[in-house]
Structures are given as C-alpha cells and as structure tokens.
Amino acid sequence: MPSRQSRGASRSPASATDTHIYPETNTKMSHVQHELHDEFPEYKEKIHALKTGDRHFARLFDEYHVVNREIHRHEVNGIDIADDALETMKKNRLKLKDELFKMLAG
C-alpha cells in the first residue's frame, strides 16, 4: 500500500500562480507573482544587460522584487495585513514597475 504524507508534512513552495477557493463565496482568486521577466518577456535580454550594467536599474529591480515577493507572500499565505498597508505596497510595486519600464523602453 502506498504511503501517505502526514498532515503535518510541509507543503511545496508557492508556484508562480496560486489559486485559492474562498469558501464563504465559493470563488477562486488567482495570485500571480508579477516577475519582471514574465511581465516584459520582450525585454528579457535588456533586463539582464541593465541589471549588470546600470546600478540604478539594478537597485530598482531589487527593490521591485522585494516588494513583489512580500505582496505575493501575504496574498498566497493569507498573512494578516491591513488593507491600506497592502494597497500601499501594491502602489509602490506599480511605481517601481513604471520606472523600470521607462528605462527598458527608453
């Protein structure tokens, strides 16, 4: 008979897109990580070049990913955070993404 994982076994890490069903409304909500290389696949090579050759871009890139992963962690794991704090983080991520895009498109 095949063995089963115990209830206390750790879960696999979150994937790029996680779907959760909210029982109170029976609706699905998808959480996407918004990684830059997925957001701007046409700029993959330029992202790499700027990360290694432009300190300002690299700093913004790193800051974007810290904020982005924190948002994703809160959404996927259901970690309590005030709505206004989460909205502030999302606005910061969008601001950083806009700045990075201007550098990529320029």
Describe the structure.
This protein has helices at 36-39, 44-53, 55-77, 83-105, and strands spanning 17-22, 27-32. By secondary structure, it is mostly helical. It has one domain (31-105). It has a two-stranded antiparallel ribbon. Helix 2 packs across helix 3 and helix 3 packs antiparallel against helix 4 (83-105).
Give descriptors for this structure:
106 residues, mainly alpha, two-stranded antiparallel sheet, 4 helices, 57% helix, 11% strand
The arrangement of helices and strands along the chain is EEHHHH
Give the DSSP E fraction (strand runs of 2 or more residues).
5-15%
**Helix-strand category:** mainly alpha
Overall pLDDT confidence: 77
Number of helices: 4
Radius of gyration: 17 Å
What's the number of extended β-strand segments?
2
Uncertain runs with pLDDT below 50, 5 residues or more?
1-30
Sheet of most strands? 2 strands, antiparallel
So what's the overall shape? elongated
N- to C-terminal distance? 61 Å
Give the tally of structural domains.
1
- How helix-rich are the residues, as a percent range? 55-70%
Strand order of the largest sheet: 1-2
